[in-house]
Design goal:
- Its cofactor is [4Fe-4S] cluster.
- Catalyzes the methylthiolation of N6-(dimethylallyl)adenosine (i(6)A), leading to the formation of 2-methylthio-N6-(dimethylallyl)adenosine (ms(2)i(6)A) at position 37 in tRNAs that read codons beginning with uridine.
- It is found in: Cytoplasm.
- By secondary structure, the chain is α/β, with parallel strands linked by helices.
- It folds into four domains: 176 residues, Rossmann fold (3-Layer(aba) Sandwich), CATH 3.40.50; 113 residues, 2-Layer Sandwich (Transcription Regulator spoIIAA); 117 residues, Transcription Regulator spoIIAA, CATH 3.30.750; 57 residues, Beta Barrel (OB fold (Dihydrolipoamide Acetyltransferase, E2P)).
- The chain is built from 14 helices and 19 strands.
- The strands form five sheets. Strands 2-1-3-4-5-6 form a six-stranded parallel beta sheet, with helices on both faces.
- Strand 1, helix 3 and strand 2 form a beta-alpha-beta unit.
- Helix 9 runs parallel beside helix 10.
- The structure holds 5'-deoxyadenosine and iron/sulfur cluster.
- 5'-deoxyadenosine (5AD) binds next to strand 13.
- The site of iron/sulfur cluster has 10 residues, from helix 7.
Length: 491
């Protein structure tokens, strides 16, 4: 996916397209054709309205969705819409949804309901829904029945077709629904717009084959497929030449990257290739599955100058019995062994994790095993989740769902332990000097800049906007629990 939004070369390609002819069949040329066509339609609407048309994309969920939203934004800007932060004022509203937990779905329904009111005041407004939630048949049925004002519904596999779907909607004036069950198709070289000028997510693979028994992702994101290393490297090189210094390699299970390629390649090998890119300073990746974390990867992390000192390694439960029920395919001991190995290779690594509480049949003993892992590993931070029953997953059919009050109590005990440990762990960097990638002006205090250390901790320090996008040495003066206040080191 190349950042082509402001690219003259791309403009030339679009100018050559004759939209009076039928659309080409091959990609990405087909989408270039629809971008050119949608541009004409939008220009006409702009003339009619006598003002620019605007859009607002709202992202729910994970980093994958955030990256997909950048692709949607790239296409909307290409066809002539301008960004508008206030959703109620926008002419085109998109919700890029998440369905990993039930409460995420409820939030989206609530928001769509409110849009109905806004659309009554602005009937020309377009509403598009996409992302994981749309891959669930029951959701689409409900939308078709009770949310008729929605204009466009598409899923996770056909995001690249966004321009084509917009054209279909503009030509038909009817609700357009395009959901694919699965695909192995990866379309390269479409426009995308980055949220930050200096850092970017880069998809290296899509989908997941793990089928953890609680998780809906394999059903809504489809089978695992990896992008070719050539395309990934080319994208990163272009990002770097455009000012990017930090990339986040994205996949549901990056450790199994490359298994499905014609010429298989390991994730560790890919990292070594990426490390060679001149001008790139930091490499992050997410998410790692413990069962696939190889010795080769640990060694590469230990030797690397660019891979950030941070590993997100979800363990989900400390009980080997529950891990087995979750189909995670590792034991508590294996996980703790991995932590020892990675700490031996990268002593100052920051470890973060995901934990689920209240999986069906979880006993107090199982939960104490989870607390034991938290105490042994001492995470820099942890995302804690209450188990959410997802229809269609094997765990949803398991009996013995744990009573809500018991789950809430365990969740609170876990959270307070996680927070206590993470504030202790965070404080060890006080009075050290760390490289900080400056991300922007502090939200609450305009005299402070905010940036991130290699281990992902936030640092606020006095400075100005000229520092944005640079890696600056900062002395960490005071730990405030989960972030630092620092001072720039004078050269
Ligand atoms: N209930 C609660 N948490 C879940 N996760 C995934 N599925 C569920 C579920 N059904 C959590 C896992 C995963 C993170 C992204 O979301 O911890 O690592
Ligand atoms: Fe879900 Fe497990 Fe795949 Fe992660 S590895 S996306 S938890 S099925």
């Amino acid at each position: 996916m190349i950042d082509r939004t402001k690219n003259e070369e791309f403009e030339k390609i679009l100018e050559m397209i004759d939209i009076t002819k039928p659309a080409p069949a091959e990609e990405p040329q087909r989408q270039y054709y629809f971008i050119a066509k949608a541009r004409e339609y939008v220009a006409e609407k702009v003339r009619e309205a006598g003002r620019p048309l605007t859009f607002c994309v709202t992202t729910f969920g994970c980093q994958m969705n955030a990256r997909d939203s950048e692709k949607l934004t790239g296409i909307l800007e290409q066809i002539g819409y301008q960004e508008e932060a206030d959703e109620e004022k926008a002419d085109f509203v998109i919700y890029n949804t998440c369905t990993v937990r039930e409460n995420a779905n409820q939030r989206v329904y609530g928001r769509i309901g409110q849009l109905n009111r806004v659309k009554r005041q602005n009937p020309h407004m377009l509403v598009g829904l996409c992302g994981c939630m749309m891959q669930e048949t029951a959701v689409v049925e409900k939308l078709k029945k009770s949310y008729r004002f929605v204009d466009l519904i598409f899923g996770t596999h056909n995001i690249y077709k966004f321009a084509e779907l917009i054209v279909t909607r503009m030509e038909s004036e009817r609700m357009v629904i395009d959901i694919w069950k699965d695909t192995d198709k990866i379309v390269e070289d479409l426009p995308s717009e980055r949220k930050f000028s200096f850092k970017s997510g880069v998809n290296i693979m899509f989908g997941c084959n793990n089928f953890c028994s609680y998780c809906i992702v394999p059903y809504v994101r489809g089978r695992e497929r990896s992008r070719s290393p050539k395309d990934i490297i080319r994208e990163i090189e272009e990002l770097v030449s455009d000012g990017v210094v930090e990339i986040m390699l994205l996949g549901q299970n990056v450790n199994s990257y490359g298994k499905t390629l014609d010429v298989p390649m390991s994730f560790a090998e890919l990292l070594q290739e990426i490390e060679k890119i001149e001008g790139l300073e930091r490499i992050r990746f997410m998410t790692s599955h413990p069962k696939d974390l190889s010795d080769e990867l640990i060694e590469v992390m230990g030797n690397s100058k660019k891979i950030c000192k941070h590993l997100h390694l979800p363990f989900q439960s400390g009980s080997t019995r529950i891990l087995d029920q979750m189909n995670r395919r590792y034991t508590k001991e294996h996980y703790l062994g991995l932590v020892d190995k990675i700490r031996a290779a990268v002593p100052d690594i920051s470890l973060t994790t995901d934990i689920i509480v209240g999986f069906p049949g979880e006993t107090e003993e199982d939960f104490l095993e989870t607390l034991d892992v938290v105490r042994k590993v001492r995470y820099d931070s942890a995302f804690t989740f209450i188990y959410s029953k997802r229809t269609g997953t094997p765990a949803a059919a398991m009996e013995e769902q744990t009573p809500e009050a018991v789950v809430k109590d365990r969740f609170n005990r876990l959270l307070s332990e996680v927070q206590k440990i993470s504030s202790e762990v965070c404080s060890v960097y006080a009075n050290t000097v760390q490289g900080v990638l400056v991300e922007g002006v502090n939200d609450h205090d305009g005299s402070l800049m905010t940036g991130r250390m290699s281990n992902n901790l936030l640092v606020h320090f006095p400075g100005d906007e000229s520092l944005i996008g640079k890696i600056i040495d900062v002395e960490l003066k005071e730990c405030k629990g989960f972030y630092y206040i620092g001072e720039m080191v004078k050269k």
